[in-house]
Structure formats: structure tokens, C-alpha cells
Amino acid sequence: MGRRLFLRHLAEVKHPDAVAGIHAVQSPEEGVVACRLICSQPENKLPIDVDIQMCATDLDEYPDGNSFVLFTNDESLSGIIPETLQDLSNNTHGQLLSSVLETISQRLTQVITCGLAKNLHNDIQSEEPDFEFEEDSDIDFGFSAPPRNSTSEARAALRSQSSPSHSTGQDRLRADVKAAKQAGFRIGVLGNLATCGILCISIRVSKLGLSEEAMQAWNLPRKHYLLLMIAFPEGYRDITLVKEDPSLSGLTQMRVALCNHYKPKLSAVLPLFKALRFELEPDILQSGKGPESTLESLFIDKPLNHLLRESFPQIVKARLSHDLSWFGAETYIQARQAAVSKDELENMRIFKVDDMSSCNSFSPIAIADHLAENGVAEVSLPLAAMQFVVRHVTRCREFCLVCHCHIEDKFEALKPYVCSKPLCLYQYMSLGFGPRIEGEIVSQPHVVDLLISFCYFGAQGQRLKDLPVGMSFPVALRPVQGGHNFGSAMPHISQFGRPGPVDTIPTDKVSFKCQWQSNQNTLHVEEEYYRKAQSLRPGSWVFLISDAGTHESHCRVKKIQLPRVELGDEFVLSLRESTLSSNGNQGAAGSSANPTVTGMPSKCYMYEHNFDDLSTAVQHQAIQAILMTLPSVEDMREYLLDRGPNGELKDWTSKVSESALGVLRWIIVSNRSCIMQLNELDGHGCFQTTAAVEDRVGGMDDWIQFRFAQGAPDKENRFIDCMRQETSPTSKYPTIFAWHGSHLSNWHSIIRQGLRFDDIVHGRVYGNGVYFSQYAKVSLNYTAASHPAILSTALNSGWKQSKLCMMNAISLNEVINRPDKFVHTSPHYVVSETDWIQTRYLFVKSSIPVKVPGQPSAVYQQDPSREAYNEHTQVIMIPITALSKSRRPGAKLEVGEAGTPKRNKTVVATDQATAERLEDDANSIASDDDDLALLVPKMVEDCEAEFDKCRDSSSPMASSKAKGKKRTAEKSDDTDFVPGTLDVDGIQFLAPPRDATRASSQALMRSFREALEVQKNTVCSTLGRYIDPNLVNNMYQWIVELHSFPAHLPLSTDMKAVGLTSVVLEMRFASSYPFTPPFIRVVKPRFLPFAQGGGGNVTEGGAMCMEILTNNGWTAAQAIDGLLLQVRMAICDQERPARLAFLGNGANGAPAFEKVTYGIGEAVAAYVRACRNHGWAVPEGFENFLTTELK
């Protein structure tokens, strides 16, 4: 068993991401593991690569009896590394392979990066650090190496110290789960929490109080559940462990996800907890809901799971120790990690702060704080963890997705992002914490096209507020000559639509000169530049420009054989303005205009300069040039669709450079607004409506329309609150709609920072605030593109791969109808209160025609005195869907009171949000019986009451339970066995298990009823077994008598000699029945041991030795009556017959037999030994049979 377990664990740790920092795990020979640790050093030194060898001392006894000898053969390493490995070897006894690797990774990383002490056990005592925090013990909460107890008994001792007794633990578990339920969360259980299971805590998305715009932006279907899964591989752990002993290593883990059911299928959840290595049975793996319950990624699942793993335990410890709020504890932990000395943290008053004052518009469940309302003894760990998750989901835009610090941002973004630290941006991109851009490209290609085009215009006008500094992607540099911008033939357009100055690069930093044969995709490097060209590598990118200035191209290097350089088959080609086709589109890739056969004298600029080192002006030009290398969004979408749901753009190396992919990812993930496309390009070159006509604004037929939302998740609620405060409840026109126009170069920043008035572009003649107009043509004047000549310039200066062919952009916004409180009302609305403004639509003017099949039928009634007009001075029709659902009309069904002769059903008017919430509640998924049983133990008691009723009705006599006395009964035919005469001395009657579930209780009740039915309808001597209903005090413990054995059996002779008429068996069932087998043992009489010639499959301790009673042979479909028949047949085995334990002849010469009953302890021990000898799997939680309470 140990060898097989080792090989299985070896296969698991070979996965590249199994253990952080450990790579290339292999086994060159049996019992030897080789791996590499790659660790970075401080001060930007090269990383250290350590080859590590691990030799197992005893694979047969792995893990409890095995140790590992750790060493390295690399003599070039610092002496502290082999010494550390030697110290670690002394503490590997009884450890799992993964645990040893994790310890190696953690310890050597500390030694390399921090130079900590060498001795693993005495590092704290032997060193005198500069300062020490009071809570240092919680730093490794959940991540330090597992406890180093050398035996399984020691591990059991640790479990008993870190968790309450079985009975107390069950009470605490129920209390903690009940607290989460009462707080408004759904509870689901996978497995058995008492021994090994996963607790699921969830809440339907619609109950989080998020706006419709937030749910759309975050891809949260309202009927789905936000799900927190807490795994307890060694049984439930409560909050006291955080306070007393924060080293939870391997005892619990947490994951978040979305699910269309409150509890997913167990087989779908287990892959999320691979490191914990759950040992569950196949039948249990299939428990839970069916295929309809699927796990889906949460939009911030990676950063949130990282936060739960790395910081949540420390935050909880800080809250419990210092009485801090969530915000105060988070701030304290961040300060502690950045602190240089202990003195910086002496003043705890600075952390006695809260951020709840800004959360008045959030739903109560989103701001509830269980930790603040209860003492440690009453705190529920599952509830505290779920409230922490809800806090970071509903308020995600307030926290950096990498360092999780609180972002002090003037703009209340709708989507989360990172803080201003460049390192956070780099990690955000490299670690994949942002949304998957491939999904955005496939699902909303025109939105991605819009974002790229806005960025291109912003870079062209030098108007990008935030640049992707920190990503360090390479770019090619070339001078800007003749008024042309970086790497492009297009002139620079100022924010007013006129050519403007650019910051040029003073010198021509050419990498090398060459002859460019564009028709053959090759270069011939001039001899004097060989040395520079040798730094080229296959896969790198270069920028080429002919000396004549007629051809430009960004190409991927395919093969290098100097002087010849072969370029990729596909490359981006751009021509000078004079060679552009009449429609302004570029030529096809790889097809130049009559290139010479001998090649064109050209200059090559390698991608060798770090973007972060450039000046701001040149960075704008670099972004513009890089975007010109991107394929069209339509081409990217087709590429991804051809490669299925897991396709990635990074694999399209022939078309998309590393730099272009980095900029594209930054553009998409940095968008902090919700933009939803309402049009699609048809096959005839026209934009047609993809959404329902009811979602489009009528009267804007010439414009491509997008739904547009900005602001924090609670911004809509604040807007509605302000509307109700500032207008009368009976007001017919509480809001008005107005336009806002801005130049195309500004929209990249607007969709990231909102409509702000801290940046003066066109002056503030009418005061400070956001400027709007009820007339579209007035707002279009501020776009500097209202004249045909300027529109043509905008069209020709945009991103050439765009299918939108963008010429202009304008937004439609809803504003609270209180013009008397506006800063100004004529000729513009000037609004200074940003909570009074909600963006609703974004319109893009395109050179491509738009087809509109009709106008919306349900429209919002505008204030007749302040109607919004289109560019042709016609009143627009605003669909009712532009409003939030809480303001749209809806209907609900009400039923008359119960008890009336006729309960009438009435349709009552309400808002759409309420109607949908009531519908969701009505269609809510019912909880499983197992989950209800955990929450409401009375359900199990009801099952037991029904069990008692079944037992009493099947009893041969209406008598009380046996209490050490024999009962009288009629003797059956053809047997000396008399039912109901068992002497129950020596039999321990047990209470039902505290973790009993309704499902298990019902299954046992059904089996009990069937067994009694067979017993009732079968002759006693023929059946050969008897269950006295009065001796079955709970359905999880049955007392069974086997009798009427064939007379020719030695066992029958022995029983007759001693005056016995039956063999008494005890059956104990676990709470996981029928997925695990019962434990069956002989209570009395004692049998002759196998070593002394006994048989009948009865072990020395009295347990039945049968494969069907182990995980290997058991099936949930096994009937109890059939099982008892197999047990009887095993005892009647004639090849190795069973005999009673013979003590010799008595005083009268009669044989004397052992009369002492078997103990439960010796039976359990014998069962485990038998399983090990035969290679059978012991059922999960089998040791609980030793701790079951007496009745």
C-alpha cells in the first residue's frame, strides 16, 4: 500500500504547478526523486537553480514509517543550501511527498532571499531579528509545512488538540452552519464534514444588491450563485483555531466560483483542492447534483482565491486580536508586510478605522459584519469567510486586484483594476488576474474594436492619461520625420481636430541596414551590420522601412542564416500615404506594390527598447505604432473560433507580437466601464441590430449604438436615492436625458475615468461641472468633427484595421430633473453633482450604413420642456429598458389568505426588479436532505421516530426494551432457537451518531423494514437469522442473531455442547451509508482464532473478515438481507470451519468454552489488520466507530 501511495503522490507532484518553485520532478530510480528549485535573488541578481535529490528510506511504510534523505550534488552553491537540506532531512519522517517538497521550496526560498537561520526548528530561538511582531505566528497560516509527527497516532493527537471532541465538534459545526444560514446564505455539504468534506456557502447573485449594469459588467447571471467552498480534509475546524494556533497547514482551504446551483457536484469541486488529496469513495464522488450543476469562473476568482489563501487568516487573526474592522485589519496587515521596524506599528489607533460610512447604498447582506457582533466563542468561521468574500465581490472596484490595497480613486469605476504601482500592473498581466481577453473578443468584437480605436485616437492626440508602464514590453524606435508620427503614415491630430506638433526622436537609431525583398519575405543584411544582426532570434519582431519611404512593415523573424534573414509568411504591411488605395485601406499582408527582385534598400529597427524607459510623448507614438501591427478584431475572432473555447492569441505568433498582445490586453482589461454592443456587421457590409429593437434609442438610425454604464456598483442605487430626495414621488418626469460630446482622442480616458470636470479642454464659461445639452448637434460641436472635412480626416486617421470606421462619438446620459440646482441651464446643462448623472448609451458615427428594423414601442416619457433631440433636431425615443429594472413596470402574483373558502389569485403591479426577485425565490432550488439534516437535526429525529414506529409494529411482543432480562417466546419448529430470549448482558447500546443525515437514516429505515418483512414471511429455521426489533434502539446499530446452523458443522456441535442457540452479531452503520459498508462483528461467543485452527472468516478480535465489508467490495446497491446471508455462509464455511474458543474440560468432564464477549476495540484493530494484509481499503471515517457514544 505504501509503495502504491507513493507512486500516486509522485505522479501528482510531477504536474508543473503542483508545488510553487519546484520544477522538473522525476524519479530516475525507485525510491529516488529528483527536482529543481528555481528561486530569484534580491537586488536583481540572476535566479538560483538548485538540483535536489530525495531518497526514500522505506517505501513500503510510506508515509508514516518513511523518511527522506535530502541533498544536492551541485558543489558550486553556497554552503548554507546543502546544510539546510541536511537539517530538513531530520524532519521528513512521516511526511507526504508533496509536504516535503513544499517545505523545501519555502525554506530554501527564505534562505536564498532573506538569509534566515539554517536550523528549521530553532530559527526563531537561535536568531535575534531586528524586530518581531506580536502576531508573527500567523504569517504562515495555512501554508507552513504539515506537522512533523512521526506516527499516525501523533497526527491524531494533533487533530484532537486542534479541534473539539466529536460531540462538541458536531455541536459547534451545527451552530456555525446555522449562523451562516440565518445570515441569509445557502448551505451545502459534500462528503462528511465530521471526517472529510467540503462546506459550500452560497447566495444568489440577485440578492447581493448589485445594479444591473454591475452584473452585466462582471458577467454575473442573476440566477446564479456566488459560491464559497471550504474544504476540511481532516474534519471541521472552527474559528478558535485561528485565534489559538494559526498553523492550519493542509487542514482547510477555500475557493470561490459561480454555480447555477447552490451546491455543485463533488466530482467537479475536487479538482480545485488537488493539494489536499481527498480520499473519497467512487460512490461519494458521484454524490451531489447532476450535470446541470456546473462550476463557472468568477470574474475575480484568481485574485480573490489568492487573497483567501495568502491574507484572510492573518486578517481574521488581526481582527480577533486587536478588535479591528475589516478595513482596519486589512490596512494593518498591509502595513505590517511593508514595515521596516516594529515601531511603525506601535500606534494601533491609526488602524481603528472603518470604511462603512460610504456603504449606505449597499444591500444589508453586503455590509453585515458577523465578527464585529460576536465574541470569539460565538464567531462562525464559515460565515465570517463568506462575508469577507461578499465584501470583496460587491466592492471589488475599491481594491487593487494584485496587492489588495484600498484604491483612493477620484473616479468610481464599475470594473475592478490595479493600483498605480507599476509592479501591480505587471503582475496583473503576467499572472492572468484580469479577464480573459479571448472571451471578450469572441463575445463582443465591436466593443473590443471600439476600445482599440479609442486608444489609437488617444495615443495619436497624446491624450492617454494612464499608460501601460510596468509591463516592460519591447518596442522598435525610429525617428519621426516630415510631421509623421511613430511608425505610421498618418498625421498627428490634435484634440481640436487640427494637425498638431509631435515630440520627435532626434536621432535615427537604426539597428541595421539591409536589402528587403518583400515579395520573398527575406532580408539581406549589409556586411557591416552582421554583429548587430546576430542578436536577432527566431520569433523576435522587427520594423522595416524602405529608404524610398514607400514601404513599411512590422515583421516576425522566422529563420536567420546571415546575411539572409527569413521573415514569417504573414506580416503586417503598411504603405506610405501616396500608395494607399483610394478607400484608405491597407494592402493585403505580404503583397507589396511591384517590389524589385534584387530588393529595396531599407532600414531595420529591432524590438529592443523597453517601453517603460521612453518619454511620455514617445510612449504615445509607440502605442500607436504597435496597434498598427494588430490584425483586425474580426480576424482575431475567426482565429479563436477555429481553435475552440481554449484558443489563445499568444499562440498566433505569426501575426501578433508579444508587444502587441501586451498592449491589447492592457486596453481591454483597463476598461472600467460596461459597454454592450447592440449592432452586428452583416454579410453585406452594413451594421444591423443584434439586440431587440426595444433596447435601441429611436431616432438615431445613422449611429452604431452601445449600452454604456459607468460608476461604482452602488452608483445606480445612489442615483435613485438622489432622484427620490430631489423630486416628488408623484413627479411624472423625475429625470431628463442629455448629450455629452468629446473628441475621439478623449474617449479612451472617459471610459476609464468617467465624465470628470477636473480637466479643462474647452474652457469653463458657464461654471464648473459636467456639460450636457438636450440637442445632439450642440454636443457634436465639442467633438471637433461636425464638419464633413474633419469627419473625413478622422476616418483616415483612425485605426486602419477597425471595422467600425469610426468618425465621431457621443454619449446619452440620464440626469436628475432639477435644473434649478444645476450650475447653469442655458445654453448648456452644467451639473456639478456627479451622483445626479448616469451614462446610458454611447453612439458611434460610422462610414458604414446602419440598418434599423423598427422603433421601440415601450418608451420613457420625457419632460416636454426638456426633450432630447438628435442631430437633425428631432425628438428621440428612449426605450424603457434604458432605466434600471427597479424603475420599470412589472407584475407579481398574489394569492388570497389560507383558510378562506376560495383563495383568489390577483396580479399586482410592481417594479420589474421585485417581480424577478419574487420569481427567483419561487423557483429557488430546494436544499438536499443531507444539508437540511445538518441545519435541522429534527429531521433526523423524525426519521428515528418513524423507525421506532416501524420497529414496534414488527415486534413479536409489545414489550419494553431488554434490560438484562430474558424474554419468553414461543419456540419455532425444527430448531432449538427461541426468538426474543437473548441475554443482552455485555452488549453496549449506542446513541445515534451526531452527524447522522436524513438520507442515510431513510436508507437504513428502508433496509430495516425490508429485513423485518423477510423475517416475518420466512420460517425461522429456514432463514437462520433473527433481528429483535426491541433490541434495535437506533437505526445505526443492529443486533442480529445467527442460529439453526446445520447439525454436521463443528460449530453446531460446539454450540450444543455449551448450551448456546445463537451467535450474536453487531452491525454498526456510518452516517455515509449506503456509500460505505457497515461494520459487522461477533459480540459473543468467542471463536477459535485463525492461527489456532479456527475459521469462518472471524478474526481474532471478532470482526468479520470479508472483502464485501470494505471499500473494495462494497456497493451502495447491496441489500442488508443479502449481506447477512453472505455472513452466515462465511461462518458455515466447511473448508476452514469455525469453532468456539475451547478452554479444556470442566470439572464434570464437559468441554468448557470462553464466555467473555469481544470488545469493540479489539474488533476494530483486527479489522484494520485484515484489510492491510489483504490490500483492502478501510472505509473513510472508520475510526469513528471507536468514539461512538453510549446510549
Short structural description:
The protein is α+β, with helices and mostly antiparallel strands and 1191 residues long.
Descriptive keywords:
1191 residues, alpha+beta, Ubiquitin Conjugating Enzyme, 5 domains, six-stranded antiparallel beta barrel, five-stranded antiparallel beta sheet, 35 helices, 29% helix, 17% strand, globular
Structural account:
With 1191 residues, the protein is of the alpha+beta class. It has 5 domains: 1-115, Ubiquitin Conjugating Enzyme (Roll), CATH 3.10.110; 184-274 and 296-396, no CATH class; 441-479 and 510-574 and 599-670, no CATH class; 674-886, Phosphoenolpyruvate Carboxykinase, domain 3 (Alpha-Beta Complex), CATH 3.90.228; 998-1185, Roll (Ubiquitin Conjugating Enzyme). The chain has 35 helices and 36 strands. Strands 11-12-15-14-13-17 form a 6-stranded antiparallel barrel. A 5-stranded antiparallel beta sheet has the order 5-6-7-8-9. A 5-stranded antiparallel beta sheet has the order 19-22-27-25-23. The longest helix is centred in the C-terminal third of the chain and has 20 residues, at 998-1017.
- By DSSP (H or I, 4+ residues per run), the number of helices equals 35
Overall structural domain count: 5
Q: Using the CA coordinates, give the radius of gyration.
A: 38 Å
What is the CA–CA distance across the termini? Answer: 37 Å
Fraction of helical residues: 25-40%
Q: In terms of quaternary structure, what is this?
A: single chain
From the 3D structure, determine the CATH topology of the largest domain.
Phosphoenolpyruvate Carboxykinase, domain 3
Kindly name the structural category: alpha+beta
**How many beta strands in the DSSP annotation?**
36
Task: Output the CATH class name of the largest domain.
Answer: Alpha Beta
* Poorly predicted segments: 116-168, 285-291, 481-506, 575-593, 897-903, 957-972
